[in-house]
Amino acid sequence: MDNIRQKALIWEQQKMKCSPEGNASFFSKITYSWYSRVITLGYKKPLERDDLFELNENDSSYIVCPDFEKQWRREILKSSKDIKVTVCKDVTRKGVFQKASLLSPLWQTFKVALIKVTILKVAADFFSFLSPQIMKEMIDLSEHHSGSYWNGYGYAVALLIVVVLQTLIHQAFQRLNLLTAVKIKTALVGLLYKKALNLSSSSRQKYTTGEIVNLMSTDVQQLMELTINLNLLWSAPFQILLAIIFLWQELGPSVLAGVGMLLLVVPINVYVAAKVKQLKKIQSKNTDQRVKLLNEILHGIKILKLYAWEPSYQKKIMNIRESEIAVLRSSGYLTAFSMLTLTCIPFLVSLATFGVYFLSDEKNVLTAAKVFTSISLFNILRLPLFDLPTVISAIAQSKVSLGRLENFLSSEDLDPQNINTDYSGKHAVRFVNASFRWTKIGTPSLHKLSIEIPEGSLVAVVGQVGAGKSSFLSAVLGEMEKIEGRAQRKGSVAYVSQQAWIQNSTLQENILFGSELNKFYYERVLEACALLPDLEQLPMGDQTEIGERGVNISGGQKQRVSLARAVYSNADLYLLDDPLSAVDVHVGKHLFEKVIGSSGLLKNKTRILVTHNLTLLPQTDIVMVMEDGRILEMGSYKELLSKRANFSELVLTFGGGKENKETLSVSKSYPKDSIKIRDHVIPKKNQYVEHKDMSTFSMKKEKVATGAMKMSVILKYLQAFGWSWMWLTVAAYLGQNAVTIGQNLWLSTWTAEAKHFIEWKQLRNYRFSIYGLLGFIQGLLVCFGAYVLTRGSLCASRVLHHQMLDSVLHLPLQYFETNPVGQIINRFTKDIFIVDVRFHYYLRTWMNCTLDVVGTILVIVYALPLFVLVIVPLGYLYFTIQRYYIASSRQIRRLAGASHTPVISHFSETLLGASTVRAFGHQERFMNQNKDLINENLVCFYNNVISNRWLAVRLEFLGNLMAFFAALFAMFADGKVDPATVGLSISYALNITQSLNFWVRKACEMETNAVSIERVCEYANIDKEAPWILSSRPPAGWPNEGVIQFVSYKLQYRPDLGFALQDISFQTSREEKIGIIGRTGAGKSTLTNCLFRIVERAGGKIIIDGIDISTVGLHDLRGNLNVIPQDPVLFSGTLQSNLDPLGKYSDLELWNALELCDLKNFVQSLPKKLQHEISEGGENLSVGQRQLVCLARALLRKTKVLVLDEATASVDMETDNLVQSTIQKEFCNCTVLTIAHRLHSIMDSDRVLVLDSGRIAEFDTPQNLLQQRGVFYEMASQAGIQEEAVNL
């Protein structure tokens, strides 16, 4: 209820800033004068979000989305078959759904608005045909001097009234049409988001995050654009029909010749539409593939940099991009063909009509009234002829998008029958012979599980990698498909995933996760989860913003924040998927004692803990041992040990036989309620900065550009476009417009001769031939112009994308940790789409409009010299309005672009954490957050629509005044001007109304869309990391000994911050094994990052085999080092491509590496073996298996230096032992640096380097360090490691 009240309060506050449209006068409404306040403010200063008017209540996503969802549910029920399908003997399901149609619910939701739009469009079309009729009367009056001249002035006023009414009605139509279209987009995005939150596991595997985001950003946009143009489907034929009727009145049956020419266009348009649809399908697949790969690259950028794989993946992206360019080329040639038909059809129609008219009867004469009335009608005809193929093409493209959306929205949701949450028995979790799998078909992942977990108990789930431990938790959550048995769960749930999901928000917001702040309990949770030392280091404490996926905090910090979120939720059932694996030993024991164990905050809760730490098992109530998806053994720790079965053997082998003694040391080291984090772990401010200092890595909001468009941006585009293509394009369009004016002047001269019938008859064939020749030349120039524009735009698309991709891959890793991935993806999707498709279209249209306006004014001044008197004041008003509008509109569009990024980022973030959101039951809250973000984007769109209407009304009114004065001066001439000149000037003046509006609109759209070019090019100006390859390259086979020397090495993340590493000096011997340890934030991972030059030095140097690493290129350095990183990152593709993305190794070498990692049997069991498809992020492998794949990569890439960064944090003790023995054997001739939380894994190192606050605290053999009784000894004691065990 508090949440609802808060929402209501926010809405009331927004109402105060609601648009004054509702209270405005009638005149203010129809002229949009009520919006002048924003336009004036925008001229004085760059507009900000708070300057804009809020949405009307009915336009909000909170109103639109529920209405549409209601209609969609009805459609789903209507399209479902009420058939009972027996899945297994215990499970029966109802409702096997066919693919539901989106069209019916869209119509039912928005039919009232769509009908209103249609009525306005009919009225606007009707008025557009009145002005040529008035012009005809004026030409007749001028030709025959019939009636009073007051009639002529009356006609001029009537013309003004008609065109003004047409303007007002047309702009009302545009406003309602655009707002209805964006409501449809809003409804679809809301439905997509809700669907994505509830997808079943099998459905989720069909769609990657990139593909789902592409549905929202591209396919929904396509349907919105179709809605905008939908009325043209009937309006264009309606206007064509009206034009033919009026032409029949002028030219009689001859008009049928023109109709025949029109009918010839239909099959051409059908062919073009079919080809466009086909190309759209291909392009959608290409774009999906590119965005999907790019998304994975950006999320796994650290791995790419560590392995020097950027060129390989850059080549993959560029190959997909070339496929996109090929489709764009085909589309461009189709556009050239469409432009040819568009320009030539009105001419061919007039040529055929005029030719048949005077050839069919010797008495037929083309008078000025007939010709210029017909020309005006042909000009009206031009727009629907252009729009009809456009809307046919849009329908073809939208049909593809509609199908993709319907397929996704009709895919299967999570089945609530997977687990019964209404259970009220005495157990927290109860399974009876329950089997589960991840997909609808296939073998079960969990077999016949029977388990009863009492309330308030602590259950440990253990087993080897791939045993099904995480799957068991997913089954409890209801994420897996139940195929038989009963599964029951009681109470609310809190879930900590194995790979922590962190939101891009403050640390406090991540922990509260939508709950109210209880300060006392919140502080208890922070202390229990060992987060207080971290808060000391954060520049804004718990108000510090954490980046996407928690990129700016360490793995241990991420896991502790995730655990704190679960603890604070105060749920009944806690599912903890190995949360202690990513933290140091002493922190892990603190967490167990203070949170999970019998004296922790959760002591009265039911806890299911997946763990590989066998020393914790004696303190649990139940131990569940899993193997191959089955429960192998289950009981208390003592019961399982007494059975002397598999579990007992596992404990004796990997627990060292001293579990009881070591476990007791936990309570000895940490008496109840007396755990303290050591003071020296909390560094003094500005003396030491942790590996990922938050002040260094705070996430940056997307900047909104301000001010006028920079010429440098246009120059960059033109350079990419190619100067030769640019000049050819300008020449083609100049020639095309010059020929068009020539045609009309030729017609004017020809019709002026009509009063001399004999002379006209003698010259008609000659005049007609020249008219036809000019049309033919125009067609050639149009075709040539479209061709050169296509070639130039393709060059620009290729060059700008390549430059951006190259710049992004050369950015330092810190950039990706401080900028949301959604921001970068937005550049590669929306901005590249504008470069590919939109910008050159706006450039072409603006050029055409400019030449049209200049040509029109010159023709009118040539015909009516007095018109010069009107040009000056109207021109001043025109440029004043333009200056005011462009300043405001440009900024509104920029704000709209910036407000779109958070929608995409939030969408992507939710998809990654959907299982966590569902586990906590927060779907409704996240859907409301999505609606809030959509509303912010809608506010900008609404203001943009109104600002465009504000401009259009004023500019079209100026155009209407031009038409009025042209008519007035023609009547004022009192016979001094011949009828042909009157017709020419008025027909041109009528044409200028839309040209003026289009000119400013396209100029503004060019400026606004140039922001996309600016955003695409901005990465070129950001500081890059060092060059990949330098001219002075290290010798082949370097390093050949693996001797690493740090000399007075210092590092700081920023000049204004303290040193993260200080005075680090040590040297390894050849093939020496070095263990690196230290408490959280000691600088362990920073040290290895320095070795790979992920972060550059602030002083000192690192020497490997006699070469200073700062003197070699990054790829020569990174390509000759080896690493197994903390986060096991896999990319979608085959298993083989993940092991060997560069294709360097044979299948035999790959199988040998898999065998050494104990993965050979698993891979051989897969149907496609090495060609097994890895899903996005490696989601279809367990975390442990992913870590083993990373080990296999390292085994293939043998170099003299190997770095292990917490490489075995996610595997069980047995697998850890296997990994360590494999590394000892296979890398015996290498220098190995091992960072580890598990101290036992570095106890056999030759020497151990102990870091403390960015300095070397101790460096000696493990035996000597234990004898020194220093920091290492203390950490070893806390881990239960005895000096005798080391000596053994």
Automatic annotation (TrEMBL):
Gene3D superfamilies: ABC transporter type 1, transmembrane domain (1.20.1560.10), P-loop containing nucleotide triphosphate hydrolases (3.40.50.300). It is found in: Membrane. The keyword Membrane applies. Residues 117-397, 727-998 form the ABC transmembrane type-1 domain. Keywords: ATP-binding, Membrane, Nucleotide-binding, Transmembrane, Transmembrane helix, Transport. SMART domains: AAA. It holds the Pfam family ABC_membrane. Signal peptide: none annotated. This is Multidrug resistance-associated protein 1-like. The gene is LOC107121367.
